[in-house]
């Protein structure tokens, strides 16, 4: 068997692409179908979920350590950018947004948050837009919270502050003189 490229210790925060930020709570050995497997036991508090990931599959499923400071800065800078409004059908955009969120890539998640954000003076979102926006924001906020040792609501407020400031800049172009 090849040497493990990724290794996580008990107590480490990790990002599992489909579920977001979790914590390694245990390293476990289990015998399954006559084979002994080493497993990472991950706990996702927000979802009240425990997940077991074979150590030799961690890399192939995209499990990773928390992002670097550089990546987090890049994600925060993405939030400050001008939202990209696509004119494709909502169902196709929703699929693209979900794929970006589930990729686990912080900058892609930030793009979804930026593109779906609506300032108070903008038209309201549809229910499904709001659901995707809240999911992406929560995913970004949990990683920010874990990195900066904040609670999730504070991290979410920090993200919304950046978005509001950016919206104030980009939306003043649209105000009739």
TrEMBL record:
The chain positions of domain CarD-like/TRCF RNAP-interacting read 7-117
Q: Name one GO biological process term.
A: rRNA transcription
Provide an example Pfam family for this protein. Answer: CarD_TRCF_RID
| SMART domains assigned | CarD_TRCF
Q: What is this protein called?
A: CarD family transcriptional regulator
Q: Which organism is it from?
A: Sphingomonas faeni
